[in-house]
Structure to design on (437 residues):
């Protein structure tokens, strides 16, 4: 059992990395954008976290990051669902049992998860458009004037998914390496996984 | 004769080439030389003198102030209230959107500068959006390019009215109310004041295409006049939605 101070330090570092990933889309460094789309840093963090955790831990991480991302953009439709699903599925992959952990597999997992998450978000928008009326918008805390049309939703989905998947899978290994090194420090102290 | 050629042939040919080339330059008035000089000077070309730009900007500012003064006089005479206060807060964009579905950005002025939710935001080029949330030092703006944005607009030339909805890009869709709208490519589109979120008379964009066959009503593609991807700073105007 690692020393308590070691665990607290690791936890603080984890929290800080999560916060930075949620804030990262606000910044637009050169080279970080493809057709106006940035990498999906909160999703990448959830994948990196969930790779070696239980499905429960992955889901909770997804819910938490989803709530943070909701706070920075808009609460409805929520990001909690898509990120929770991503956390759950990534953890279920049981990566250390079935796959070697290397750059290519991380990139591929992130690519697939981005496609799944963006499709879920498009479905959330579509359900809102189909089943909510203008008056309901006041009841839920909707930030816009009206709901987008289905054609706009799926056109946005097309444009966003490919660019986000490419960028996120390219930057994924760059995020994964420092995070894994940080978390391995704690595991080395733990001894056996 | 052969020996003479061997001795002087080369120099004769060279002389011919040189004089022929020089004659060509003279005949074309140095056109090729001028072009070559242009391409060569490019690495050292200067930016226009900033003092000249400052002078031009100052002239435009004075003209605008004069026009605004005349506009105020006319409004007083006709008893039409002016929708926008002249006081605006200048703010810079410090953050873009946090996810891929919303079109927002964050400004570096907030409650401390008397910015409130509902205030209207404009940038060089035209209307950009409105403030949806404020903190003491920041404000989050939802842009008119957002797919959930609806702006009541009017075509400047013909006063044809419609609703502008965002597409998540620099082009938005204008849906008209009438089945036979008077609109052409190149027409300017302004806010109409019909939607209570934005005051009337703000520049929104230029019509780029018209499609009279869409249902339920004819549509036009409007290119938004403020380049949203490049906006670095903007003006925030106080706007109380209760006023007309």
């Amino acid at each position: 059992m690692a020393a308590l101070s070691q665990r607290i330090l690791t936890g603080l570092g984890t929290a800080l990395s999560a916060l930075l990933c949620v804030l990262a889309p606000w910044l637009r460094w050169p080279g970080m954008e493809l057709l106006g789309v940035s990498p999906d840093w909160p999703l990448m963090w959830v994948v990196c976290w969930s790779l070696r955790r239980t499905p429960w831990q992955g889901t909770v991480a997804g819910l938490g990051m989803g709530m943070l991302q909701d706070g920075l953009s808009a609460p409805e439709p929520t990001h909690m669902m898509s990120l929770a699903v991503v956390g759950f599925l990534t953890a279920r992959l049981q990566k250390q049992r079935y796959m070697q952990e290397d750059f290519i597999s991380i990139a591929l997992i992130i690519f697939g998860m981005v496609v799944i998450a963006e499709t879920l978000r498009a479905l959330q928008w579509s359900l809102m458009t189909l089943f909510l009326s203008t008056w309901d918008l006041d009841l839920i805390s909707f930030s816009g004037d009206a709901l987008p049309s289905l054609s706009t939703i799926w056109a946005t989905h097309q444009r966003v998914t490919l660019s986000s998947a490419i960028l996120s899978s390219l930057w994924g290994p760059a995020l994964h390496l420092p995070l894994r090194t940080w978390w391995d420090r704690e595991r080395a102290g733990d001894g056996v996984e | 004769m052969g020996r003479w050629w061997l001795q002087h042939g080369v120099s004769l040919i060279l002389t011919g080439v040189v004089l022929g080339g020089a004659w060509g330059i003279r005949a074309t008035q140095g056109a090729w030389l001028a072009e070559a000089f242009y391409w060569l000077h490019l690495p050292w070309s200067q930016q226009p003198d900033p003092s000249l730009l400052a002078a031009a900007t100052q002239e435009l500012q004075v003209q605008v102030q004069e026009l605004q003064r005349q506009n105020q006089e006319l409004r007083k005479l006709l008893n039409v209230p002016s929708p926008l206060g002249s006081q605006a807060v200048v703010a810079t964009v410090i953050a873009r959107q946090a996810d891929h579905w919303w079109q927002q950005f964050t400004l570096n002025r907030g409650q401390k500068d008397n910015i409130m939710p509902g205030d209207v935001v404009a940038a060089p080029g035209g209307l950009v959006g409105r403030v949806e949330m404020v903190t003491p030092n920041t404000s989050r703006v939802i842009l008119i390019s957002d797919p959930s944005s609806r702006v009541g607009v009017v075509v400047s030339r013909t006063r044809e009215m419609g609703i502008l909805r965002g597409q998540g890009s620099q082009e938005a869709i204008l849906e008209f109310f009438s089945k036979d709208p008077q609109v052409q490519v190149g027409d300017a589109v302004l806010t109409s004041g019909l939607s209570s979120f934005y005051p009337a008379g703000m520049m929104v964009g230029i019509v780029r295409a018209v499609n009279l066959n869409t249902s339920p009503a004819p549509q036009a593609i409007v290119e938004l006049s403020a380049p949203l991807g490049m906006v670095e700073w903007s003006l925030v105007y106080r706007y109380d939605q209760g006023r007309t």
Summary: The first strand of chain B starts at residue 88 and ends at 95.
